[in-house]
Amino acid sequence: MQNLEKSVVAMSESSSRLMEYEQVLSILSVNESSLRSFIITKDSSYIKERFYQKNSVLPILTRIENAGVDTAYGVTNDSLIKLIDVRFALFDLVLDESKDVSKIESIKIAEVLQRGDIISDQLREYIRASVNTEVTNLKLFKINHHYELQTSIVTTFLIVTLALFIILVSISQINSDVKKLKRVNSELSFLNYTFNKAEKIAGISHWKYNVEQRKFTFSDNFWSSVEGFNSNLQMGVAQVFKRIHPEDKRKVITTYSESFDKLLPTSIIFRIFTGVDELRYIKAVGSYVQNDEGEHIKIAVNYDITEQYSANLEMEKINNNLQTINDELESFNNIVSHDMQEPLRKIQMFISRIESDEIKKLSPAAQGYFDRISFAANRMQNLMIDLVNYSQSVKGEKIFERVDLKGLVGKVVDMLPLEIEEHKVKIEIGQLPEIIGLPFQLQQLFVNLVSNAIKFGKEDETNLIQIYLDESEKSEERDLLRFPREDFYKIVISDTGVGFEQQFATKIFKLFRTLKKASQQKGTGIGLSICKRVMDNHNGFIFAQGKTNQGSKFILYFPKNLSTNHNPLHDII
To answer: Do 128 and 58 form a contact (C-beta atoms < 8 A)?
Structure first.
């Protein structure tokens, strides 16, 4: 219908332009006829009564100009206006020259009239071409109008047919939607049933409060829990509050009254007596939402935490017992670090005197026994020192600060000059980063690792110990996945010592675990346990790699962004 309307408008506009072109030609013909009659008869009435001024043509030209570009002979409507301006200027020139009757037959007027005839011919030619174009367009518009008229009839029929089809499809869809609605209602009923069952299994219940309507709604499991888990009897809110323990009643009323007035979320624990006079501990949490009508609805969930509360009481007793045990262990640690070392120092002092003054007086067998006594005393002292260090790594004060590892490792090496010289060790310290850590514990870590590498070097050989930051691309794929370079620093302590079998790589970090018999071992079995504890305190990881007589490597992974929270990877790796 819109296309039909456009075709009618196009025909109407084309017809209007044809009439306007005819009007322009008519005005030009009248003016030329009047001007010639005036020149021939010298009767001014022809000029005064039958001559059109330019103003009478301007509205017509404006309408033609608004019609756009006319492609006839490549001439535009703008050219038409210029030709009209020239023609009327020549009209005005003839009239000015003809005011003096004696000049009417002058040569100048004849030239102007001749020029005017030329312009008039151009105007007629232009208008004739434009009229021909409009006639052609009008025919096309009529053909198009006839086509649109026929098309509209077919289109109307198709639209009516399509509408009927849509109505039939809609009716079918409505029937399908009704079936789906029935199925959804059935599923919702089952979902409600399973939700109630889930509440009973989980020991929870819920209730709602509409603030604007001042209306409570309780779940079935709420009433069952209040009545003793076996009743469907529903009571009012007042009866529910009567069941709350007297010592908790004021707290509950105050909390919920403030919540209803100020739309505040709540979290509260209280006691309630069930219908069988059983005291239960309830934790209730709730917050507000808005329904489609803009009403504020408080939704609250009640958890029965009676068993959890009882378990917490039992846990408190266990914690108290553990605290007592920890205090006793702390006392034992003080005894080890102070009281037990005093008699041990005296034993070592007397051993030293016997070695310097009396050792030669003993029989070879007694000297062997004496050497064993001296070894056992020294081992006991090392064991007590390591126990104190391990206790400090577990319970030490954890104030983290920025630590320059290269400077710290350098100080550790400076602390071991005699050991380095005795065992013919060469130590190379490569590039090391700054990390956030506990300086004292990090010092313990590297002292133990460097001391181990020194102690377990090959005899009569110069042993090389290297400490460096590994940023190479050659790390195993599994290491790159677990410890990506953007999250962890990888620090390696390698040596060329006696090494160990790889099957013992995890055993050596256990407390009091060593790879040799007590009579052969050089350590106490605590040093690497301290290293493991220090890395745990820094949320880091330590791994060992070794081959017998081919040296060993200890690999440390320090997180670049240290968090003092427990690292969940410790439970997996």
So the answer is: no
pLDDT tens-place string over residues 411-453: 888 888 888 888 889 999 999 999 999 888 888 889 889 988 8
DSSP assignment, residue 550?
Answer: S
Q: Measured in whole angstroms, how far is the alpha carbon of residue 508 from the centre of its chain?
A: 43
Q: Report which DSSP code applies to 335.
A: I
Contact 430, 466 (CB under 8 A): yes
Whole-angstrom distance, CA of residue 413 vs CA of residue 431: 15
**Torsion, CA 241, CA 242, CA 245, CA 250, rounded to 10:** 50
CA distance 334 to 391: 10
Residue 27: name the closest of 52, 2, 8, 63 by CA. 52
Burial 417-447 (b: 16+ CB within 10 A, else e): eeebeebebebebeebeebbbbeebbbbbbb
Q: pTM here?
A: 0.40
109: left (phi over 0), alpha (psi -120 to 50) or beta: alpha
CA distances 105 to 33, 42, 113, Å, are: 17, 10, 11
Cβ pair 494, 466 in contact under 8 A? yes
Closest CA relative to residue 554, chosen from 562, 546, 566, 565: 546
Report the distance separating Cα 66 and Cα 155, nearest Å: 34
SS3 sequence, 402-428? EEEHHHHHHHHHHCCHHHHHHCCEEEE
Which pLDDT tens digit goes with each residue over 25-64? 788 888 778 777 777 777 777 777 667 777 777 777 777 7
d(CA 134, CA 128): 10
What is the C-alpha to C-alpha distance for residues 244 and 345, in angstroms, rounded to an integer? 67
What's the distance, CA 426 to chain centroid? 51
Can you list the residues of the chain whose pLDDT is less than 50? 69-75, 229-232, 477, 517-521, 564-573
The residue count of the chain comes to 573
User: Under a CB-based contact definition with an 8 Å cutoff, are residues 14 and 138 in contact?
Assistant: yes
User: Any bridge partners for residue 470, and if so which?
Assistant: none
Q: Which residues pair with 427 in a beta bridge?
A: 465
